[in-house]
Amino acid sequence: MRRTTAATQGALRTAIWHERRVELAMEGDRFVDLVRTGQAATVLASYGFKAGKNELFPIPLDAMNASLGLFTQNPGY
């Protein structure tokens, strides 16, 4: 990580998130990071992201059928 002048907790977190984004570019981790840090609704709103639905993926129908009723579908699907 390059040197940072972050003086507050928020500024340091922003610097770390930026560095993680640069280091892991094209690795497919950004979506998970955005959901985990609660930033997905803000950052991805212009792409149609809906909070409360798009944080989880749907459970495949064959997995639902094979579970014999143990699974319930994720909300919104």
UniProtKB/TrEMBL annotation:
Compartment annotation: Cell outer membrane
SUPFAM superfamilies membership: TPR-like
Keyword match ATP-binding: no
Family: Belongs to the SusD family.
GO cellular component: a single term: cell outer membrane
RagB/SusD domain span: 7-40
UniProt KW keywords: Cell outer membrane, Membrane, Signal
InterPro entries reported in the protein's UniProt record: SusD_RagB_dom (IPR012944), TPR-like_helical_dom_sf (IPR011990)
Name of the featured protein: RagB/SusD family nutrient uptake outer membrane protein
Signal peptide: none
